[in-house]
Amino acid sequence: MSQTPSPTSPPAARPTEERQPSAGLVIGVLAAAGMAVALQQTLVVPLVPDMPQIFDTSADTASWLLTITLLTGAVATPIVTKLADMHGKRRMIVLALSVMVVGSLLLALTTSLVAAMVGRALQGLAAAVIPIGISVLRDELPPERVGFGIALMSATLGIGGALGLPLSGFLYEQAGWASLFWVSAAVTATILAAVVLVVPESPVRNPGNFDLVGAVVLSAALTALMLVISKGASWGWGSSTTLGLLVVSVLVFTAWVPMQLRRSEPMVDLRTAASRPVLLTNVASVLVTVGMMANGLLTIPMVEAPASSGHGFGVSVMTAGLLMAPSGLAMVAFAPGSGWMLNRVGGRQTLILGAVVVAASYFLRPIADGSLTAVVVVSTLCGLGAAIAFAAMPALIMSAVPITETASANGINSLMRAVGMAAASAGTAAIFSSLSTATTVDGEAVLAPTSTAFTVGFLLCGVFAAVAAVVAAFIPTRSGAVPQPGSGAEKVVRGRILLAAPAAGAQPEHVLGTVVLTCPDGQQVDWARPDFDGHFSLAFPRDGRYLLVATARGWAPRVSVTDLTAGCAPLRVTLDDRLTVSGVVTCAGSPVAGATVTMFLGSGEHTGHTTTDEAGRYEFPLPAPALYLVAAALPDTGAAHAEKIQVMAESVVADLELEPLPEPLTEAGTTVTGGSGPRPE
Fold first, then answer.
1. CATH fold group of domain 23-200+267-479
2. What pLDDT score does 128 carry?
3. What is the pLDDT of residues 234-244, one digit of tens each?
4. I need a surface site. Which of 113, 286, 414, 462 has the fewest CB within 10 A?
């Protein structure tokens, strides 16, 4: 490996003499931004019954004002977070909040349904603020504040949702529809200014090429999927539209996955996303989010139902919203506790505890619905469990991915939460539609959910949360710690893995491997997965000496000691020790030239063939670990030999001694000659 730490470019880190904002101020501003974004998800929920009248349209058409925000948020999040890793996290937060201000102003100034949908779509584009903000906190906070910052930022999804219900009802009753969005625009603009003034731009970047085709295909697949989840209940789960969109989503995802695996710089690194820590955390995220979202979807209609229903309390819409506020406030209040747990017991145990608390809150619901106080207590308990679990999710994700990809990895986790929210809404609607009974409200006959519908909903959510706890228990313990913070001082060095020159006429190989950077004592600092040309980026906390371990499929790893400084020249690592399956073919103790050597998988698939050189030597690139059969033969004489070999992650030497031509064996008109192993009787 060659290394030249000459300062050929300006330092990536901010100068040490530059005065940095306090950690508390950064946390507060980013948490406020997260709450403002989360408010947009629920801001119009209490107004659903009035929206057809406001826009002079049908109830089904008006419901798109809810759907389109969720849809654009799901589509935009992976794209915006990827751009944040590449071009700057604060820059993307500023862009997202600016778009949200424009959307709010558009909603405040119009009663046109089309313009209102555009405004709600623009508001949804800001959903990426929360995962990007979490990544900024990891980069900027001192070690002792990282856990609390992640916990509070993660909880903003629930906090904003819980506070949005009573706030929107109050504003609408007092000042009308437009007031909601004048307030939203003013608050968001204030937070935007605070972000510009307070939040520093992270120096951690992952420059490269944006996978535009992958982004477009992913957007198409997500659009179809989210439409199925969010509109399937109203369209009918068996309708041609729902089934057609489901087929489209499956087909597009099926095409997108191999496309990403073939990309040198994919939109989503599926190999990292499929790793056990990331995959299991994302699965648990969906399940816990279903419980968090269903808390309001089940509790509000239950307490609003008349007492004559046998399960309701007959409270007003405003009161129902206020009853959900403690759930959101509990998420704020317990953020320090969640952060303490992350620091003391790690992300895995924190996630397990949060999921168990959510499950317990739902299993208690059927026996705690006798009084309004008990309902509020168990609802708040659910919010508390969700806050604990949500704090752990990004910590687990960021501990398992390269530092330069934390925003995009959190974006995928945020997308999983959006899927969970949509699934909770669709599932609740399906339960209510299948378990309803006719009742009279204000002299009109309507269908209302039965007590059984709520009981089924509570128990299912409890089961989902319990399954999430089980899934979390299988997350590897090495990913259980809070991610190492950067405290604003991390620098990024670029580099490239070079493979030894291929043989004349051979195609250049793709680099499929990893690069790991550690301290001299072996503590891991960062890691990266190079693109197909070998380019990679690594973050390191301070100037000094590090160990760099580079490996690629089919090549022996290489470890080097390197001194890294701000602005050092790109690193170059040459791998020249190819891992092979090789040997010498002999006959009667003498090397055999021109022998045919073939290699098969133990299951019979052909993997390669070659001929021996003048010295009887042959060589194959090391294939994937498995059991193989290597066979050599001289077609002219019939001499042959075969051996089984076990390929692992190191070179294999298999010398083959050809056996003389045996007596021909004829069976059923077929002549069999040569080979090795026992001859038939």
1. Growth Hormone; Chain: A; (1.20.1250)
2. 92
3. 888 889 999 99
4. 113
Task: Region of 203 please: left (phi>0), alpha (psi -120 to 50) or beta.
Answer: alpha
- Tokens in use for 23? 């950690």
d(CA 414, CA 390): 10
What tokens does 396 get? 């687990």
State how far the alpha carbon of 111 is from the alpha carbons of 53, 117, 224, 520, 547, in Å.
11, 10, 28, 64, 62
* Residues of the chain scoring pLDDT < 50: 1-18, 479, 665-681
Per-residue pLDDT of 557-572, as tens digits, reads 999 899 998 888 899 9
Q: Identify the three-state secondary structure at position 650.
A: coil
pLDDT for the residue 541: 87
- The fold of the 491-575 domain, in CATH, is Immunoglobulin-like (2.60.40)
Question: CATH assignment of 580-672, given 2.60.40.10, 3.50.30.10, 3.30.200.120, 3.40.50.1100?
Answer: 2.60.40.10
Contact 671, 665 (CB under 8 A): yes
Of the candidates 317, 384, 307, the residue with the CA atom closest to the CA atom of residue 353: 384
Residue spans per domain, the chain: 23-200+267-479, 212-266, 491-575, 580-672
